[in-house]
Amino acid sequence: MLAELPDMGVDQTKAAIDRAYVAQARWAALTARDRSDTLWRWHQLILDHTDDLAAILTAEMGKPLPEAVSEVSHAAAYLQWYAEEANRIYGETISAPSTDRRMLVIKQPIGVVGTITPWNFPASMVARKISPALAAGCAIVLKPAEQTPLVAGAMFALAAEAGFPDGVVNLIYASEGAAVGRELCTNPKVRKISFTGSTEVGRLLMRQCSDQVKKVSLELGGNAPFIVFDDADVDAAVDGAIQAKFRNAGQTCVSANRLYVQSGVHDEFAEKFAARVRSLSVGDGFKPGVAIGPLIDTHALLKIEAHIADAIQKGGAICCGGSRAGPGGTFFEPTVLTGITSEMLLAQEETFGPLAPIIRFEDPDQVVREANDTIYGLAAYFYASNLKRVWHVAEALEYGMIGINTGRMSSEAAPFGGMKQSGIGREGSRHGLEEYLEMKYLCMGGL
Q1: Residues 254, 245: contact at Cβ < 8 Å?
Q2: pLDDT per residue over 4-62, tens digit each?
Q3: What is the DSSP-derived secondary structure letter of residue 89?
Q4: Residues spanned by the domain of 53
Q5: Strands laid side by side in the 317-320 sheet
Q6: How many structural domains does the chain have?
Q7: Residues recognised as catalytic
Q8: φ and ψ at residue 427, rounded to 5 degrees
Q9: Global confidence as pTM
């Protein structure tokens, strides 16, 4: 056992919302510079405690310590970005149709925001969700994933030290999140919901918010294709696939889920990729050299095993891996499968684990159609050198984020989000701030 925490429910959530509702007006009334300064102080405290936060993160969800350090640094980067953006909330003037009036647009904070964060990036998701809301002048009620509450608690302790006024940031621990989520969605004092998680839960939250026409931001499931064309730099594509597939043991919403490789480079790519995968060490995230930590729970283990079994039964072959690792726990060998077809489960569903299925293709236009043949549209990757092909494929892929000749594209300066059933809205960048602002048109007559 790492820690004991209070198990909160609807009553505590209502109380937190009430505190946030009162505090939000005072927070919004501060100058943008005041809000910016508080975010800057929080950013610096996160950096000062990077090692401690990373250790907590690895202890509670298992990712290798270097990845945890990188995640905490990424969280701090979001706080820095929105500390700067807090001073850049601009309105506009509009040319009026007559000389006796003036037309203006101002932007104001939407109000209290309910946020629900996932377990796979428990530090960076907290920062990415709430820093733009705080910069805009909103107050927050956050429920972290029940699997990983400790990092959020530590970050909120640093937020209090940074000087956020009482009631502006509120944390709810809950082992059963459904009732808390329902209260956040149905309480009229909450004006917006921001959620990262499965598409199934996202649909439920949308339904619960619909009676109040409540604004939502949703970052949901993915089924990312990773396409390697004949004209690609194969070694670079292998490097990118390792990054895009095996970071956090494949437990990322932008993880490469389907690796399409054109026939001309298929065998070379598969051989080099499998060799790299065999070198990835599985084990305790605190041990030096470990690249793959545990899966989050037994359900994740059973899902990856079911996907492998289905693929083998339908003609797929194990190139490397394929089994649980170690004498116990939820460790699984990084696995590469070949001979994959679109009828297999792992080509249709998000595996969310260290499983890389390689699909051979011939026709460049057909592979784009297959890549788009999913309800999801979060992230996609492809490797090619022909400029005409790069533009054609980038414009044809139905995804909110495209990595071109790179396996890693997340940045606080870039808009993060998807199309189709992968979500609504964007996080990060200047666009992320707009998600927490209401636009108000003022028409002034009699001038």
Answers
A1: no
A2: 899 999 999 999 999 999 999 999 999 999 999 999 999 999 999 999 999 999 999 99
A3: -
A4: 10-220+422-444
A5: 317-320, 335-338, 355-361, 256-262, 224-228, 379-383, 401-404
A6: 2
A7: 219
A8: -120, 155
A9: 0.95
